[in-house]
C-alpha cells in the first residue's frame, strides 16, 4: 500500500513539474538563438561593422553617418552596429572575419586589402595622386572599377571607397627633410609591398604593426618612425610619442568599404537598394568631411605645439619623388599593366593641378 502511494505521489510531482515548465515557457520570451545570416523573417537585420580607428576620425564619422542613413532608408529594418577601435578585430584578422561572416562589414586601408587582392596596392604608390580630386577620380574611373571587381572572387562585395587623407611622416629620431634622413630608421608600416619598397629606397627598415599597437611601439622605441594622416596622428595621440612631423603628402590613405558577399546576396532587393543609396550619400559626404577633419585636426596639432613641424618645400618634394620613382617599376608585376597605365595617365592629367588641401603652398 505504501509503495502504491509512493508511486502515485512521484507521478503527481512529475505531472505538476511538466505542466509548470510548459506554462512558464509560453510566457518566457527569451529569443531563440540569433543567426546573423538569417534575414527576412520579420526581425531586424543586423550588420556588424568593424573598424580599427576611433569615432572622431574620417572613417569613424562616415560609419556613423552610414548607420544613420541605413536606419532611415530601411525604416529601421536594418541596423548597422558599429565596432570602432579594433574592439572586435584588428587589421590582421578583419578581412578573414569578413570572409567567414563573423562580421558583415569592414573598411580596411588599401594596404590591408592588398594582402588579399594585391592590385589594391596601386593606391599606396608614392606621389601618384596630385590632390584629393585626383584620388576621387581614381575611385570613380577604371582604377576603382577594376579594384572593386577583383574582390568578388574572394567572397567580398566592394560597396565603395572612403578617403582619409594624405600620409605624413613622423619620427622620434630627427626631422625628415631629405631622403638621407631616413637611413637606418625603423618605420612602422601597413602591410604593402609598395610601402616596403618605398622605405627600402629610403634605406630605412620596416615592421608591419596593427594600428592599435602603434602608440605602444613608438613609445617603447620598438619603432622610430611612421607615416600616417593628420587625423590618425591626432586621434591616436601619436604626437605624444613622435617628436617630429614632416608635412609631406607623399601618398594617400583610404579605405575600401567591404561587405560579406553571401550576406549581401541574401538581402532582399529593397534593402540592398537602400544600403547602396546610403553608401552613395555617405561617400559623397565622407570624402569632403575627411578633408575638413584633417584640416581641423592639423590646426589643433599646431596649437598643441608638441611636435617639431617641417613643411616639405617643392624642391624637397621633387627630391623625394625622384628617389621613390623606381618603386613604380618594381611593383608593376603585382599591380598589372592596365592599372599602372591608368595611374600614369592620371598622374600626368593632374600634374599641373593645385596641391592637396594641407600643403606647402597653402599653409
Ligand atoms: C593604419 O593602420 O595606420 C591605418 O590603416 C588605420 C586606419 O584604418 O586609418
| Global mean pLDDT | 90
Q: How are the strands of the largest sheet arranged? A: 7-6-8-5-9-11
Largest sheet: 6 strands, mixed
Kindly give the count of domains. Answer: 1
Using the 3D structure, state the CATH architecture. 3-Layer(aba) Sandwich
Structural class, by secondary structure, is: alpha/beta
Q: How many beta strands in the DSSP annotation?
A: 11
Kindly estimate the percentage of residues that lie in beta strands according to DSSP: 15-25%
What is the ordering of alpha helices and beta strands? HEHEHEHHHEEEHEHEHEEHHEHHH
Please identify which CATH superfamily we are dealing with.
Answer: Bacterial extracellular solute-binding protein, family 7
Morphology: globular
For the CA atoms, what is the radius of gyration? Answer: 26 Å
Blueprint of the fold:
Blueprint: H1 2-27, E1 45-50, H2 58-73, E2 78-83, H3 91-99, E3 105-106, H4 110-114, H5 132-140, H6 142-149, E4 156-166, E5 168-171, E6 186-189, H7 193-201, E7 205-208, H8 214-219, E8 225-228, H9 230-235, E9 244-247, E10 252-260, H10 261-266, H11 269-304, E11 308-311, H12 314-324, H13 326-335, H14 337-349
Parallel strand pairs: 1-2, 1-3, 6-7, 6-8, 9-11
Antiparallel strand pairs: 3-10, 4-10, 5-8, 5-9
Helix pairs in contact: 2-11, 7-13, 13-14
The structure holds (2S)-2-hydroxybutanedioic acid (LMR).
Amino acid at each position: 500500500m505504501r509503495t502504491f502511494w509512493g508511486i502515485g505521489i512521484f507521478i503527481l510531482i512529475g505531472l505538476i513539474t511538466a505542466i509548470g515548465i510548459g506554462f512558464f515557457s509560453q510566457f518566457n520570451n527569451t529569443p531563440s538563438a540569433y543567426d546573423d545570416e538569417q534575414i527576412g523573417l520579420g526581425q531586424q537585420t543586423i550588420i556588424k561593422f568593424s573598424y580599427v580607428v576611433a569615432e572622431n576620425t574620417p572613417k569613424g564619422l562616415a560609419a556613423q553617418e552610414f548607420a544613420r542613413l541605413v536606419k532611415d532608408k530601411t525604416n529601421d529594418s536594418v541596423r548597422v552596429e558599429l565596432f570602432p577601435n579594433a574592439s572586435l578585430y584588428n587589421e590582421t584578422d578583419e578581412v578573414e572575419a569578413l570572409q567567414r561572416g563573423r562580421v558583415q562589414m569592414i573598411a580596411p586601408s588599401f594596404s590591408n586589402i592588398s594582402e588579399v587582392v594585391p592590385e589594391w596596392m596601386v593606391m599606396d604608390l608614392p606621389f601618384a595622386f596630385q590632390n584629393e580630386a585626383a584620388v576621387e577620380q581614381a575611385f570613380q574611373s577604371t582604377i576603382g572599377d577594376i579594384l572593386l571587381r577583383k574582390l568578388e572572387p574572394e567572397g567580398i562585395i566592394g560597396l565603395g571607397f572612403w578617403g582619409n587623407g594624405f600620409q605624413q611622416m613622423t619620427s622620434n629620431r630627427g626631422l625628415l627633410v631629405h631622403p638621407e634622413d631616413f637611413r637606418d630608421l625603423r618605420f612602422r608600416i601597413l602591410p604593402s609591398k609598395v610601402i616596403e619598397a618605398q622605405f627600402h629606397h629610403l634605406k630605412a627598415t620596416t615592421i608591419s604593426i596593427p594600428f592599435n599597437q602603434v602608440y605602444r611601439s613608438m613609445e617603447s622605441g620598438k619603432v622610430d618612425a611612421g607615416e600616417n594622416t593628420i587625423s590618425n596622428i591626432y586621434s591616436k595621440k601619436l604626437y605624444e610619442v613622435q617628436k617630429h612631423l614632416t608635412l609631406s603628402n607623399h601618398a594617400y590613405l583610404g579605405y575600401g568599404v567591404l561587405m560579406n558577399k553571401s550576406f549581401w546576396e541574401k538581402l532582399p532587393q529593397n534593402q540592398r537598394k537602400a544600403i547602396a543609396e546610403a553608401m552613395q550619400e555617405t561617400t559623397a559626404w565622407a570624402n569632403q568631411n575627411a578633408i575638413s577633419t584633417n584640416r581641423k585636426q592639423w590646426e589643433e596639432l599646431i596649437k598643441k605645439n608638441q611636435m617639431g613641424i617641417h613643411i616639405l618645400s617643392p624642391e624637397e618634394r621633387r627630391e623625394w619623388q625622384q628617389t621613390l620613382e623606381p618603386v613604380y617599376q618594381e611593383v608593376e608585376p603585382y599591380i598589372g599593366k592596365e592599372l599602372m597605365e591608368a595611374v600614369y595617365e592620371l598622374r600626368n592629367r593632374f600634374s599641373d593641378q593645385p596641391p592637396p588641401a594641407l600643403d606647402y603652398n597653402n599653409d
